[in-house]
Write a structure and sequence with these properties.
There is one protein chain. The protein is an alpha+beta fold. The protein has two domains: about 5-115, Glutaredoxin, CATH 3.40.30; about 120-205, no CATH class. About 40% of the residues lie in helices and about 10% in strands. A four-stranded mixed sheet has the order 2-1-3-4, covered by helices on one side. Strand 1, helix 2 and strand 2 form a beta-alpha-beta unit. The termini are far apart.
Length: about 230
């Protein structure tokens, strides 16, 4: 995003009294309010907690790397530039619940306690994924995969596992098996590691539990429910 847009958000966070919801959208959202923003604003209006809403229309020029997610919502506490968590795509539409989670975190609670206090299954799966990330050894893998894995883990910690179904990440062995399949696939563009079938960047996609290969070479992982 541009320096000007960052300063606008920074000023809002500095002066906010309530949670700040920063919505990052694609270029052109100033002139055309798409379905994502329309639905999100409706969700905000239909809940009762006061918030500050900030819309950012990401401009493609000049290019920024890494490119920020669009159709993404970042939740900030007042006077803190580190997001409490973020939501992406359809996962951003549980606005009332997410605002309550943000308010609980502003009171000093952890993300896990704030988001999953009434959902023992998700709380357990979150803890299991955290333990997996802390204890796995990626030194056995090639450096290219290690870089991808480090990026995936950074996304996990930054986003506080922003998906509705856990776990967000597969373990390193499963991710490497997927990645290896993609490297041998005729539809992978080796200069960018982008799939010609789905358009995704496979160094990232192969890490995600909910992702699947568009031609069926590997499949999504369904979270296991804990026994009652």
């Amino acid at each position: 995003m541009s320096v000007e847009l960052f300063h606008d958000l920074k000023d809002l966070i500095d002066n906010a009294q309530h949670p700040v919801l920063a919505v990052v959208l694609a270029e052109g959202c100033e002139n055309f309010k798409g379905k994502f923003l329309t639905d999100f604003e409706t969700q905000v209006q239909n809940q009762f907690n006061p918030v500050h809403l900030h819309i950012i229309c990401y401009r493609e020029e000049p290019p920024v790397f890494p490119r920020p997610l669009t159709q993404a919502v970042y939740y900030f506490a007042p006077k803190n530039y580190t997001p409490l968590f973020f939501r992406h795509g359809m996962n951003a539409m549980s606005v009332a619940t997410d605002i309550v989670t943000a308010l609980k975190m502003m009171e000093g609670r952890s993300y896990v306690d704030a988001a999953y206090e009434h959902n023992e299954t998700m709380h357990t799966q979150y803890q299991e994924t955290e333990q997996m990330i802390k204890t796995e050894d990626t030194t056995q893998f090639p450096s290219l995969f290690q870089q991808a894995r480090n990026f995936a883990k950074e996304m996990w910690h930054t986003g506080k596992n922003a998906a509705a179904g856990l776990p967000v990440l597969v373990d390193a062995d499963a991710a490497f098996q997927r990645f290896s399949m993609c490297q041998g696939c005729e539809f992978l563009k080796t200069d960018s590691f982008r799939c010609e079938k789905c358009g995704c960047f496979m160094k990232t996609k192969t890490q995600l539990a909910s992702a699947s290969c568009p031609i069926g070479k590997w499949h999504a992982v369904t979270p296991q429910k804990q026994p009652a």
